[in-house]
Amino acid sequence: MGTMEAPILTVNNLNKQFGSGCDQCSNPADRRLDKNYCPACGTVYSCQNITFDLHPGEVLGIVGESGSGKSTLMRCLYFDQEVTSGEAYLGPYKEGRSNLFRESSQQKRYIRNHLMGKVYQNPVLGLRMNFSSIGNIAEKMIAAGNRNVAAMEARGSELLERVHIPVYRMKEAPKNFSGGMQQRVQIAKALSNHPPILLLDEVTTGLDLSVQANVLDLIKHLQRELSISILLVSHDLGVIRMLANRTMVMLDGRVVEQGLTDQILEDPHHAYTQQLVHSLL
Ligand code: ADP
Ligand code: MG
User: Fold this and answer.
1) What is the pLDDT of residue 2?
2) Which Pfam families does the UniProt entry name for this protein (predicted)?
């Protein structure tokens, strides 16, 4: 991972608000908010001027308490939700020169299907629970234009094997699976079109600790094998510590600190980060 290498993803001043704002909160310079919320008009500023780079082969951790805007950021990047304003550039897309948020919905679909994979905290959002597991994977491959059934079956079973779903269970629906297995099917689906970027939103939250460790270990191995770039969101600094090269700390919709994970753990600057680090010890 060379720091001289161009970023694979650049995000500039991403903003997402719910509500249209009022004269008390419209000006970002002197906004008076209660956390991320304008008490005068009820507008929620979920993401405020989020700016960062993701480098090839890097795992960037995004940590912050519940409500700090992590999932909103991920939803905006995967076009699940529209940004209020901001820019994002992908190295492998139009040579990194086109703001993704300005693209047509058809182009956004292309980007989602070919250049990104996403794993949701809630598997219901990422999988059809009643389809077969291999069918769930095929769905993403079909969305990317694949038509060769035999090739998709071969790729699907290879992926499921990689995430340690036994071959004889591939035709089974995710609703029959444990939480850890459902997340592994989501990971296989997300990887199906060889995307350079993976978005992981609280993938292990709510799983038993031993299952959580297995899934994190799987992600670590896949990341090394595929040298894929990952945005890893968690409210748990312990999860971030296991996987992230660099870390970004969010609070009330803002990035309050970012840097090498080791440095943040050793010498946290922001009071909120200090509190997070101390609670790890
Ligand atoms: P996190 O993932 O860090 O827990 P979220 O991104 O889910 O945080 O939420 C950030 C903030 O945005 C929260 O205050 C949440 O209530 C608010 N929010 C998220 N979605 C909506 C929505 N559709 N309408 C209004 N507020 C929302
Ligand atoms: Mg969330």
Assistant:
1) 47
2) ABC_tran
77-90: average pLDDT: 98
Say yes or no: CB of residue 67 within 6 Å of ligand 1: yes
The pair of structure tokens assigned to 54 is 């993701």
Give per-residue pLDDT as tens, 103-133: 999 999 999 999 999 999 999 999 999 999 9
Q: Which CATH number applies to 57-82+103-280: 3.90.280.10, 3.40.1550.10, 3.40.50.300, 3.40.50.1820?
A: 3.40.50.300
Question: Per DSSP, which regions of the chain are E strands?
Answer: 9-18, 44-54, 59-63, 85-90, 116-119, 197-201, 229-234, 246-251, 254-260
d(CA 194, CA 192): 6
Cα(94) to centroid(ligand 2), Å = 30
pTM: 0.96
- For residue 169, how far is its CA from the centre of ligand 2 (angstroms)? 30
Among candidates 176, 159, 157, which has minimal Cα distance to 168? 157
